[in-house]
Specification:
With 476 residues, this protein is an all-alpha fold. It has one domain. The protein is 88% helix and 0% strand. It contains 16 helices and no strands. The protein has helices spanning 2-30, 33-53, 55-64, 71-102, 109-135, 138-162, 167-189, 200-235, 237-276, 278-305, 307-314, 317-350, 356-407, 413-431, 438-460, 462-475. Helix 6 packs antiparallel against helix 7 and helix 12 packs across helix 13 (356-407). The protein is globular, with a radius of gyration of 22 Å.
């Protein structure tokens, strides 16, 4: 079931991070470091606004909406949701403006308006994507994800190309694509505008479950975006723009493999929990974790091996030196955090012990801030990235230790060993030849790595290959 559901979500899970990557690359050729820094900061602030204002309701939705089977319960939920979206959108609009003031950006009416519409529309889209995932609505989920990434980048690039290369233009393009998609999603998902206080029973239940996740997530935001804040105060907006390219690319590349699995994994575990109990749901999480490791680990190692030709080919000259220094620790930091968030964290969400994540994220954030600041002081921008990596590793060790020791999470050790072997074969293959320069050489290197890794897995999982061939022949 996991692989089947993963394949259904694959187009959205592939296209969304792909266009996020494309946007991060293209903007380096259009924006100066200062402008890139403003754009990166606003996008990071939107993630924080969603985390604090709305994610508690999204977490409750993913965990409990599948259990609301009666028309009355569904109607009650929809009314509460519409009122929560209205109230939180007002707060998020204010947060968007505050983010601009915090970095001393030049406040033009265009930038303020674009920031508000981008922040609010992106947050509502993120919630609706989670609601779609909770109900298994692959079409709505795909529209929400692709509109926010591919559609947003397309319109943003068009606005920038036609007018001028400003953060306001890029944000306006993203906002237009997101608002357009919201119109369609509202009709499909029964979204209505309703003003008033949400249902107290639902609100209380959602806050009890989701508020610890919000607090933990808001603290965890520091782990991902704290480097931008620290660099902003330590080295200025231009340095934020320079470091944001490598850090953002590393995070997106590492999360790409994770996103291919995560859309389907947790809802399946929730259904297993209610249908068959905790032990079976933890086994499902372990199986999902094996698939997650099998995608994230080789992708991270592969990126490290092709980092120099990748950066030389894609990134504009003013950003290259810093990007090459920041990209490797950023990739590994993203890989470790994705493995933690989409594997160990889900144990606490499943057994409704979400308060533990506050402590885990607090430990991680303290480690990240301290080590990032020390790294920046001692070794510059590359040192700041290495400090973040070390802090994130501390958080992961603590989280997995508690999930395994207290709640019985089992690591898929045998699967990890085989994945490590296949990844080693890929690394050896990529280290041997002298690849041609340019797009042809880079493409050949990536294709070879994928082929060797796939062939090694086929050798290490013969029974799986045999079953796949037998089913293919039966269908034929």
């Amino acid at each position: 079931m996991l692989i089947y559901q993963t394949l259904l979500y694959l187009p959205a899970q592939f296209l969304a991070p792909l266009f996020q990557f494309v946007a991060a690359v293209v903007w380096t050729h259009w924006f100066l470091p200062e402008a890139y820094g403003v754009l990166a900061y606003v996008m990071a602030a939107q993630e924080l606004a969603f985390m604090v204002c709305l994610s508690w309701w999204s977490h409750y939705t993913v965990r409990y909406l599948p259990m609301l089977d009666t028309p009355q319960a569904r109607a009650r939920y929809l009314v509460a949701e519409s009122r929560i979206l209205v109230l939180t959108s007002l707060i998020q609009a204010f947060v968007g403006v505050v983010s601009l003031v915090a970095i001393d950006a030049t406040l033009t009416s265009e930038l303020v308006a674009a920031t508000i519409f981008f922040t609010v529309s992106r947050s509502v889209m993120m919630h609706l994507a989670e609601r779609s995932r909770s109900r298994g609505d692959v079409v709505a989920y795909s529209v929400a994800q692709i509109a926010s990434s591919a559609g947003g980048f397309g319109l943003g690039f068009l606005v920038v190309a036609v007018t001028s290369a400003t953060p306001a233009g890029a944000l306006a393009g993203f906002a237009m694509a997101q608002i357009g998609a919201l119109g369609w999603l509202a009709g499909r998902m029964g979204l209505r505008i309703s003003i008033g206080m949400p249902d107290r029973g639902l609100l209380g239940a959602a806050l009890r479950y989701g508020l610890p996740l919000v607090i933990g997530g808001a603290i965890g935001w520091v782990s991902i975006n704290g480097i931008r804040v620290i660099v902003q105060h330590g080295a200025g907006s231009a340095a934020v723009g320079l470091v944001s390219v490598g850090w953002g690319l590393g995070q997106r590349m590492a999360s790409f493999g994770a996103m291919l699995v995560t859309a389907a994994a947790f809802p399946i575990a929730v259904r297993e929990f209610h249908a068959r109990g905790r032990k079976q749901s933890l086994q499902q999480l372990s199986a999902s974790g094996a698939l997650l490791v099998g995608l994230v680990v080789p992708m991270s190692i592969g990126i490290l091996l092709v980092a120099r030709p990748l950066v030389d080919l894609l990134i504009a000259a003013p950003f290259r030196v810093v990007t090459l220094a920041v990209l490797p620790p950023a990739v590994f930091a993203g890989a470790i955090r994705n493995l933690r968030v989409h594997f160990a964290d889900q144990v606490f969400m499943l057994v409704e012990r979400t308060r533990i994540l506050i402590l885990v994220n607090a430990i991680e954030a303290i480690a990240v801030v301290g080590l990032c600041a020390a790294g920046l002081f001692l070794w510059g921008l590359a040192g700041a990235a290495v400090g973040c990596l070390a802090g994130i590793a501390v958080g992961a060790v603590v989280c997995f230790a508690v999930a395994m020791g207290r709640y019985g999470l089992q690591l898929p050790v045998w699967h990890i060993a085989r994945i490590a072997g296949a990844t080693g074969a890929m690394a050896i293959a990529l280290s041997l030849p002298s690849w041609r320069a340019g797009i042809v050489g880079l493409t050949s290197e990536i294709a070879t790595g994928i082929a060797v890794y796939g062939a090694a897995l086929a050798v290490l999982y013969p029974a799986f290959v045999f079953r796949g061939c037998r089913r293919a022949l039966a269908w034929g």
